[in-house]
From TrEMBL:
Single Gene Ontology MF annotation: long-chain fatty acid-CoA ligase activity
Superkingdom in the source lineage: Bacteria
InterPro entries: AMP-bd_C (IPR025110), AMP-bd_C_sf (IPR045851), AMP-binding_CS (IPR020845), AMP-dep_synth/lig_dom (IPR000873), ANL_N_sf (IPR042099)
Residues covered by the AMP-binding enzyme C-terminal domain: 429-504
PROSITE patterns the UniProt entry points to: AMP_BINDING
Organism name: Geomicrobium sediminis
Family designation: Belongs to the ATP-dependent AMP-binding enzyme family.
Name of the protein in question: Long-chain acyl-CoA synthetase
Entry keywords, A to Z: Ligase
Keyword Ligase in record: yes
């Protein structure tokens, strides 16, 4: 029998009906004169942000975007991301989140699945998107964020959104197979997770008073939900960063004094390393959260000492759950090293990985989750949806235990996903690209421990007879075809790969051998 977890007060009746767009709309009414976004020195009040979003919606409508259409959004953290995201939602269209670091092959694959009607991004990516023959909107050429009289005269069609059925965002994830799939997150999924998270943090921060540092990428489900959507819902000021740089980040912290800092372990480690030789002031932090990868316990303790009273709350989530399902309480019993307790209205089961029966306290099995934040399914992929969702229960692929107090611990992964610098990396996807190299006969990609990244990607390669290739040459070739975080940091050439008696490559054995070598070298 699964133990009952610490009960949270239900928030089901607090989840709004209709469109996620109302988060911005309602905050514009309540906090109109408050600064909503600070982007590289540019400041936008909630009133201005709302009006400019409507203006952009009108522009998108003139380009033919209507309810149910998919729009690819490929931008770094900036005010134009916020404007574009909510402008698409205002029309009842669907945001397809895209990492700006993606290359042609990756974009082409996502395009073939999502079939968007429009792409929004920066002109520096023109060469990447030209092969898609897709209508584009380049925000640095076509979008003006200056106020003008047009903002007062926007006319848009009324759109009726069914919050439970209508998809707001397609968030690509590799799932358990490594083949990218589009998780369909409805308006209700995303609004629910914001309301759940805000209720969970009750008494920690207040609406209309906080400053969020927007470090986590908005195109990633963590940054989208925990920073952008939650920030606008809370009437907070969001200070954006295109990419984390420790010196720049600490300057922003000193200037704007953020109270809420959602980040991944690598960012915390970079701050600690910097603080060894430089003074650091983190006293404005009330809440720090960590997600996307396990946080070493010692790093948590060091960061809390450095912030002089700030609390780091570890959590857990997936793209398929909008994303957060568990978190350590900000107030009350906090168990460092655990992922905490389920958010309000989130049910959990731990089942035997082979037999599917429910397990009890401290017994390790696969974690299943059910709640209002769990996705509708995978876009145009009935088979994968049926495998991942059964009777409303989401199979996470992660191995977990739960203790007598209802606190959950992730002890392993059923899937062979690698988490490096907070990014999910699916070995099969990288292997598929490497196999297109004319000199490669066989390849296996896997993760090995890394103090900074959490895990780093390694590749074992067998070359075809009569060919030659260096590590530097292969890495340069990969950089042209893969986002930087997917390029293997460690590459070795071998005569053969270890395999089972039926010819399956023993990826786990390669990873173990690599770990042993690192250990022998004192790493």
């Amino acid at each position: 029998m699964n133990p009952s977890v610490t009960k949270q007060k239900s928030v089901i009746d607090q989840i709004p009906e209709g469109s996620l767009f109302q988060f911005l709309e309602e905050s514009a009414v309540t906090y109109g004169d408050r600064i909503a976004v600070i982007d590289d020195g540019r400041e936008f009040t909630y009133d201005t942000l709302y009006k400019q979003t409507l203006h952009l919606s009108s522009l998108l409508a003139s380009k033919g975007v209507t309810q149910g259409d998919r729009v690819m959004l490929m931008l770094p953290n900036c005010v134009e991301y916020v404007l574009s995201y909510y402008a698409v939602l205002r029309l009842g269209a669907i945001v397809v989140q895209v990492n700006p670091g993606y290359q042609r092959e990756e974009l082409s694959h996502m395009y073939s699945i999502a079939e968007p009607c429009l792409w929004i991004g920066e002109s520096i990516h023109k060469e990447k998107v030209e092969p898609l023959k897709l209508q584009c909107l380049f925000v640095d050429e076509e979008l003006s964020t200056g106020t003008n009289e047009d903002l007062e005269r926007v006319s848009l069609p009324e759109v009726a959104v069914n919050a439970s059925e209508d998809v707001a965002v397609i968030q690509f994830t590799g799932g358990t197979t490594g083949i990218p799939k589009g998780a369909m997150l409805t308006h209700r999924n995303l609004m629910a997770n914001v309301v759940q998270t805000f209720a969970f943090a009750h008494g920690t921060y207040e609406r209309g008073e906080e400053v969020f540092l927007g470090v986590s990428p908005f195109y990633h489900v963590l940054g989208m939900s925990s920073v952008m959507n939650q920030g606008l819902y809370a009437g907070a000021t969001i200070v954006t960063m295109r990419k984390w740089n420790v010196e720049q980040g600490l300057r922003l912290i000193e200037t704007y004094e953020p109270t809420y800092f959602p980040a991944v372990p690598t960012i915390y480690i970079s701050i600690l390393d910097y603080a060894k030789e430089h003074p650091v002031n983190l006293k404005s932090f009330k809440v720090m959260t960590s997600g996307s990868a396990p946080m070493p316990v010692e790093i948590i303790r060091q960061m809390e000492r450095l912030s002089d009273g700030g609390v780091i709350s570890e959590g857990y989530g997936l793209s398929e759950s909008s994303p957060t399902t568990h978190r350590n309480p900000f107030i009350g019993l906090r168990k460092i090293g655990s992922i905490g307790i389920p958010l309000p209205d989130t049910e959990c089961r731990i089942i035997h990985v082979d037999h599917g029966v429910d397990l009890g306290i401290n017994e390790a099995g696969e974690l299943l989750i059910k709640g209002p934040q769990v996705m509708k399914g995978y876009f145009r992929d009935v088979e994968s949806t049926a495998m991942q969702l059964q009777d409303g229960w989401l199979a996470t692929g992660d191995i977990a235990t739960v203790d007598e107090d209802g606190y959950y611990y992730i002890v392993g992964r059923k899937k062979e996903m690698v988490i490096g610098s907070g990014y999910n990396i699916y070995p099969n996807e990288v292997e598929d690209v490497l196999y297109t190299h004319e000199s490669i006969l066989e390849v296996s990609v896997y993760g090995v421990p890394d103090r900074y990244r959490g895990e780093t990607l390694a590749a074992s390669v067998v070359l075809k007879k009569g060919t030659a290739l260096t590590v530097d040459e292969l890495r340069a070739w990969c950089k042209e075809r893969l986002a930087a975080y997917k390029v293997p940091k460690m590459i070795e050439f071998r005569k053969e790969l270890p395999k089972t008696n039926v010819g399956k490559v023993l990826r786990r054995k390669l990873a173990e051998e690599h770990r042993e070598r690192l250990k022998a070298n004192g790493n």
